[in-house]
TrEMBL record:
Gene source species: Paenibacillus cookii
InterPro entries: DUF4227 (IPR025321)
Protein origin, superkingdom: Bacteria
Annotated protein name in UniProt: DUF4227 domain-containing protein
Keywords linked to the UniProt accession: Membrane, Transmembrane, Transmembrane helix
Pfam families: DUF4227
Membrane-traversing stretches: 12-36
Length: 77
């Protein structure tokens, strides 16, 4: 079995360049994601904005958990 040193070095160079470009692309996507994402997801809205979800420990009067689950699957909400 003959192992070509030139071919091994070429393959190693390709793998190093591929790994470097993959890492650079990952860092670029991470930077873009941090730029797009708001700083505080759960802050109180300002201006005319309305917070659409109010968390509470109790279900609204007369509403059972099974009904909520059925509503979720029916409307996808």
């Amino acid at each position: 079995m003959i192992i070509s040193v030139r071919k091994c070095l070429s393959t190693l160079k390709f793998l190093l360049v591929f790994a470097a470009l993959t890492y650079a692309l990952y860092q670029l996507f991470s930077l873009i994601g941090a730029w797009i994402t708001p700083v505080d997801h759960y802050r109180i809205p300002e201006g005319h904005a309305v917070k659409a979800f109010h968390s509470s420990d109790q279900a609204p009067a007369g509403e059972m958990m099974g009904d909520r689950l059925r509503f979720f699957y029916w409307y996808g909400e």
